[in-house]
Fold these 2 entries.
Entry 1:
Amino acid sequence: MINGGDTVAELDRFRLDGRVALIPGGGGAIGSAIGSALAGVGAKVVVVDRTPDRADEAAARACALGGICKGVTADVTREEDAERIVKETLDAYGRLDIVVNAVGGGAGKVLFDAEVYPRDAWDWIYELNVRSTLVATQPAVRAMIAGGNGGRVVNISSVRALLGINAGYSAYVAAKGAISSLTRQWATEWAKHGITVNAISPTFVDTPQVAMLLDDPAFKAGVVNRIPLRRVAGTEDLTGAVLFFCSDAAAFVTGQILGIDGGLTATQ
Ligand SMILES: NC(=O)c1ccc[n+]([C@@H]2O[C@H](COP(=O)([O-])OP(=O)(O)OC[C@H]3O[C@@H](n4cnc5c(N)ncnc54)[C@H](O)[C@@H]3O)[C@@H](O)[C@H]2O)c1
C-alpha cells in the first residue's frame, strides 16, 4: 500500500493489463525479450518482423505462460506495411497503447573510415535504424491520437549516440544520434496528446548482432574493461527500463534517454 493507506498497490502501476503493444523488430534478440516482458505484465502484444518465422516464434514465446500475442510479417520501412500493422492491431484488439521500436543495428557490418564512408552503407544504416523508426511510429501515433487514451513510444538508441569510437562507425553514430534527437522532439510534440516518448541507450548487448565482435577475446576484454560494472549487457538488463517507460509509473517521464551501460557513460 502507498500514500498512507491508498488502496492502490505500488506494483500495480507497473502492470499493463488491457494495454496493447506493437513491437516492430519484435522477432529480434532485444525485441523478443521486450515482447515477453510486456506480455508478462499483462499487455497484449503484436510482434512485427520482416522475417515471418521470427515474428511467429517470438509471439509464441511471449505468450508461452498465457496472455495474448500475435505475430505479423511486415517491412516497417514501407509505409503501406506500417499502416497495415496498425490496422491489424486495431482490428484484433481494438486499441493501440504502446509502440517499442526494436528494428535497427547493422553497425558492425559496415565499418569504414569516416573520410571515405560509402553512401550506400550510410543509406542502409539510416534505412534500418532511422527510417524504420519514423515510418513505424507515425501511423501508430496517429492511432493513439485518434484513440484518445494517450500512449507510449519507446525507441532504442545506443551509447554510440553520445560516444565517438575510432572504428569506422560514422553512419551508426549519426543514426543513433538521430534516434535520440527524434525521441526528444516527439516528446515535445506529442505530450499534448498524453503520449510519452523515451529511449533506452545500451552499450553492447550479448546478442547475435554483436556475437562476432564479442567472440574475439581481445575485443571483448577491451569493451568490458571500459565498463565499470565489468560486463556487457544481457537483454534482461534492458527489459525493466522499457516496462517502466510503458507503465503508469512513468506517466510524468518523457523525452528521456536512459543509458543502460554498466556505468560506461559515467566515466566520460
Ligand atoms: N545488440 C546490441 O549490442 C545493441 C546495442 C545497442 C543498441 N542496439 C539496438 O537495439 C535494437 C535491436 O537490436 P538487436 O540486437 O535485437 O537486433 P536483431 O537484428 O536481433 O533484431 C532486429 C530485428 O528487426 C528485424 N527487422 C530488420 N529490418 C526490419 C524491417 N524493415 N521491418 C521489420 N523488421 C525488421 C530483423 O528481422 C530482426 O529480427 C537495434 O536498434 C540496435 O541498434 C543493439
Entry 2:
Amino acid sequence: MRIRAAVLEEFGRPLEVQELDLEEPRTGEVLVRLVACGVCHTDLYTASGADPSGYAPTVLGHEGAGVVERVGEGVSSLAPGDHVVTLFSPQCRECVHCRSDQTNLCLAIRDMQGRGLLPDGTTRLSRDGEPIRHFMGTSTFAECTVMPEIALAKVREDAPLDKACVFACGLSTGLGAAMNTAKVEPGSTCVVFGAGLVGLGAVAGCRLQGAERIVAVDLSEDRLELARGQGATDTLVGGPDTVERVVEMTNGFGADYTFEATGNVVVMRQAVESARMGWGLCTVAGVAGKGETLDVVPRLLITGRRIAGSSFGGVKGRDQVPQLVERWLAGEIDVDPLVSQTLTLDDVNRGFELMEAQDGIRSVIRFGEAA
Ligand SMILES: NC(=O)c1ccc[n+]([C@@H]2O[C@H](COP(=O)([O-])OP(=O)(O)OC[C@H]3O[C@@H](n4cnc5c(N)ncnc54)[C@H](O)[C@@H]3O)[C@@H](O)[C@H]2O)c1
Ligand SMILES: [Zn+2]
Ligand SMILES: [Zn+2]
C-alpha cells in the first residue's frame, strides 16, 4: 500500500513528508493505522545526527497510537479493530528478561530493532524499490506502520488515542520510574528533577504510590505549576544550590527517593546528592549526551545511597501500558494538560521547533485531519 510518512533523509535537515510503499504484515506482524503520535526528544536527537547509532533514510516516530488494520500469520493476541499503543520496548513474554520481574528489557528483537529492521531482518517500508529502515521498531510518523505483535499494547477502545499516545514513551517512563523502578513507598518524601513529560509522569507516579511529600524541581515556573497539578506538594526553581535546599527541606537528611528527568549530568549528580543516607534511591531516567559521564563521590554510596537507571520506566509494555491507561480512564492520571498542541503530519517539523522552544509539554500529530 501507499502511505504518507515523515522521512529523515539526512541528519540535521527537516523531515520530508513523502509517499512510501508499505508491505503487508508477515508472520507475527501487524499493520496499524495510526491515529496519533507524540513528538519526542528521541526523534529530534536522531534527526539532529547526535545519536551515534542513528541511520538515514528512516521514518521517525515512536509515540504512536492507532487501530489494527490487518494481522499477519500466527498473530493471536490482536485482531483488526483493536486499539493499540506502540511499544519501542517490546514484551515477548518468553525471553529470560521477560520472565524476570526485575527488568523490562526484552531481548527478543533487540538486535534487528537497533539496526532498523523488522525481526526477520528485512523492512516493510520502501521507496521506488529501495528499502527504508524502521526507527525504534515503530516508525509512527506515518499513516500506517507494520510492527511486531510483541511491540503493541492493546488498550481499551474508549481511551481517546490522541491522548493515549503519550503512554507510548514519556508518560509511562515517568510513571514507571516511580512505580516500578523505585517502588516508592507510601508516606515517603520524593524529589523529581525536571518537569517535562517524564518528570511530570514521575510526580504523578509518586502520588499514586502514596508519597507524602513530592518536591518538583525545574527552571520553568510554568512547568512547576503543571507539576503541582500532577501532585507536587512543593516546587523549587533549580540552580547550583538545589541540593542544599532539598537537604534543608528534609530535616538535614535528603529525600527517600529522587528522580532525574532532565538528561543533564550535572542535574543527575544533584539528584544523587539529594537522596538521603541509609536508603535514599536516585532513579535516573534522563538520557545524557554522547560521551558524558555521571560524577559521584563513592562515599555517598557507602553511606547507603543507591542509584538505579530506568528505561521506559521498567514498564513491561503489553501488560502494564493497558493498566496505566485504565488508571487514566479511572481519573487517577490527568493527561489533558500534558498534550499542549495538535499538529498534522505535514507540521511535524513544527513539533520539533515547539519542543526546542519548550512551548508546551507534548505536541501530538493527528492523522487523517486536514491541515
Ligand atoms: N529512560 C527512558 O526510557 C526515557 C524515555 C523518554 C525520555 N527520556 C529522557 O528523559 C529526559 C526528559 O524527557 P522529557 O521529554 O521530559 O524532556 P523535557 O525537555 O520536556 O523536560 C526536561 C525538563 O528539565 C528541566 N531542566 C533543565 N535543566 C534543569 C536543571 N538544571 N534543573 C532542573 N530542571 C531542569 C527543563 O526545564 C525541562 O522542563 C530526556 O533526557 C529524555 O531523553 C528517557
Ligand atoms: Zn520518546
Ligand atoms: Zn522478551
